Amino acid sequence: MLDRILPINIGNGVTLHLINTKKFKTSLVSVYLQRPLTQEEVTKNALISMILPRGTKRLETSKDIAKYLENLYGTSIGSNVSKKGERNIINFRMQVINEIYIDEKHILEKGIRTLNEFINDPLIEQGHFKTEYLNQERANLTEKIEGRKNDKMKYAYERCIEEMCKNEAFSLYEYGNVKDLKEISDITLFMHYENLLKSSPVDICVVGDISNIDIQKMIDRNMKFKINKPIAVEREKLFNKSEKVKNVAEEMDISQGKLVIGYRTNIPFESELYEPLIVYSNILGGGPNSKLFKNLREKESLCYYIFSRIEKFKSLMLISSGIEFDNFDKTVDLVGMQIKDMNNGNISSEEIESAKNAIITAIRSMTDSPGMLADFYYTQIISNNQDNMEEIINKIRKVNKETIVEAGKNIKIDTIYFLRDKKEDN
Amino acid sequence: MSMTNEIYSQLLKEKMYFDQLDNGLKVYTMPMEGYTKQYAIFATNYGSIDSKFKIMGEEKIIEVPDGIAHFLEHKLFEERDGSIFDKFSELGSNVNAYTNFNSTCYLFTSTDRFLENLELLVKFVQSPYFTDENVEKEKGIITQEINMYKDNPQWKVFFNALRAMYHNHPVKIDIAGTVDSISRITKEDLYTCYDNFYSPHNMTLFIAGDIDHAEALKVIKMSMNERPSNAKIIQRVYPEETNSIVQDTIEEHLDVSIPLFNIAYKDILNNSTEDKLLNRDISTKILLDMLFGKSSELYSSLYEEGLINDTFEHEFTGELGYGYSMMGGESKDPLLIRDRIHKHIELLKKVGLSKEDFERIKRKQIGEHLGYYNSVEFIATTFIAYHFKGIQLFDYIKAIKKIQFSDIEKRFLEHFCNSQSILSIISPK
Fold first, then answer.
1. What confidence score (pLDDT) does residue A416 get?
2. Rounded Cα distance, A72 and B368, in Å
3. What is the ipTM of this complex?
4. Which residues of B touch A144 (CB under 8 A)?
């Protein structure tokens, strides 16, 4: 088991987290910039994450970059934006093959140097990003935002959150919106970029076979951050406002209905009931032996997929399934019955054991993927949680039926969202 | 008696162990030091394209409804005394399965009590329990699965591309079949397929994780059925398929924001031996990266003109009976992209490919391939896919290193004929 690594302050508001392991064939360097999730920033942050990989001072075009990285044995550098609760995270990651497998010296250092250029040394013309690149990426981002509806399952899930959390920052789509995108100019985008570099708390997670001292030296030599006033990103606020269930139906030309039911769990992730809540959700809809799967799929043949998921930072629980349009009422009723049943204490010790074991397996499995390891530690960092993996696992182990039922009693239904076919006009 | 073989790869610095049991089952383990997860996959060389077959020496061709391999995969999870999911769940492991064109695979991942999990896996795959009632019940679930795919534009654009390429080959049929074809499946059909394709000599078990081969082997042997191995040899019957395509353009409308497209080149089949198959696989993958990858002339010009975005991808599929290169993504103007690709290919046929590009892409693919070995899932699923076409996964890296520019040039002329290409489009309604 890999232990939590002590964070190292490497100056300029940058914190380094090293996970030293020999088991992978690659080294991963993942850089996270933390921002508040706001309407004002979210679209710009998405655009920044797309424009930076287009060209650097040294490698001016995407083609130059691709050629350079291909020569470095397919070193990959990618960027993306995401929302973790009401934080907007801009992530850059670089993965490179370990030298012992190839005949290329200093490949990690070359990778880190290039990664730094992506973040801190982009191609600048006339005081801003190259206009051509901005226009192309604006068009790409527009397509991405509009293309959200192409994946119906994901679309329905996100739309439910949007409806449920209207007027809360969490309702913002991580890629922003087309209206704001149109209004971004060369200058405003570049000013925003400069502000990001000055004010974002930066964490770097490294996963690989490298010593603490060596990686610090390498980062020190190659990565130039200019943070002078790191902002403090606030913890998200929780709302308890489900007095009346909100029903939302949206029509699209589709073959299968997508049902998503949103709940307020009213349990913050800092609470002692958080682990029981995780177990609760797993028993309800965590996998093929969950109550929802067994009763709605195996017994009633209502669906192919049905699952329940916790949104940690916002204290939400969402249940998602694909069903026949006409089975809407029946499915909603059956889901409600399963929840009621659980809250009445109808949970077997086998179900509890299975759920705990499944969660522990999932946590342990993260240690086998460099990307998941880095993200796991980063999530711990922004949750301000000092627990290492074994401590988290111990908390899961301690969950019992009483605490699960207690957690369940806090869960309140908020929104029922249904993506359905177009009704015939007659 | 079997003797354990050790296979070592100097390039990967990895090894695996191999045994064949007396009943014909092949068992491989790859010890992954330091890994928390264990992954075992029990696979049969039987997929969605195998719905017509005959028993060697018999005249009668047996034909079963489309989608039956996938249906069988679903049903194998049902046991006389309930569902196998519960038993794996008690151990905290995840059990799953998938069916593709050529194989059906049952697998689990665990982080604890590996041998108990392994025993469960081996036993449940050998214990079919089909009743009229449980077969009927599954039809509702699979109908929902089929309906889910109907709304999935990526899936649709891909299968439409196959339908535009293949006249008769069953690769053009959806893996899950259709609502109509699965409605005709009976428990007798399921037993027929099970008996013929789930015999140990048609199956392979692959394990990756920090585990001991000898211990795993012992558990597998103990968990094997006593039933005599079905020594009958199954002959799969595939219809005649010519090299020509069915139609050069296929279009369908769905509720999407922007057109999705796939452009595919149907491969010319020339009874490839297994050795040639690996060379064909690698040379085509290098070629695709040279022609359509991020560093290529074509990619950057199409990207800069706003005709493609970062969803643009390419892949090669090369099996014994069929093969194709496919590239696609989202675009405002798929027809124009096809036109540009065709012209580019014609141009390259005149001016030739670049050796420098080749050397660079070769390095890239060596690195990428090495990186895949970080993933237990990748190793296991890729091992099985190559294994069933007679390729040992460890040979892949050796073969990339050996590939020559001349292989690529030859392959380019053979594979990229514009008259063999099709365009599949999913347009907004």
1. 98
2. 11
3. 0.94
4. 309
